[in-house]
Amino acid sequence: MKSRYKKLRLLLGDQLNIQHSWFSRKDQSVLYVLMEIRTETDYVWHHIQKACAFFAAMEGFAKMLNDNGHDALYLTLDDPANLQSFSANCDALIEKYGIESFEYQLPDEYRLDEELKGYCGTLKMHAQVYDTEHFYTTRDELGTFFSGKKGLLMENFYREMRKKHNVLMDGKEPTGGQWNFDEDNRKKLPKNHHPYPPLLFDNSVQAQYDRIRNAGIETIGTIDPQHLYWPVNREQALKLLSYFTENCLPLFGTFQDAMHTDEWSVYHSRLSFSMNTKMLSPKEVIEAAIGAWEQNRKAIAINQLEGFVRQILGWREYMRGIYWLKMPGFEMLNYFEHHRKLPDWYWTGKTKMNCLQHSIGQSLNHAYAHHIQRLMITGNFALLAGIKPDEVDFWYLGIYIDAIQWVEITNTRGMSQYADGGLIGSKPYTASANYIHKQSNYCDNCHYDRTARTGENSCPFNSLYWDFHDRHRDKLSKNIRLSMVYRLWDKLTRVDREAILLRANFCLENLEEL
Ligand SMILES: Cc1cc2nc3c(=O)[nH]c(=O)nc-3n(C[C@H](O)[C@H](O)[C@H](O)COP(=O)(O)OP(=O)(O)OC[C@H]3O[C@@H](n4cnc5c(N)ncnc54)[C@H](O)[C@@H]3O)c2cc1C
Ligand code: SF4
Question: d(Cα 252, Cα 159) in Å, to the nearest integer?
Answer without folding.
Answer: 21
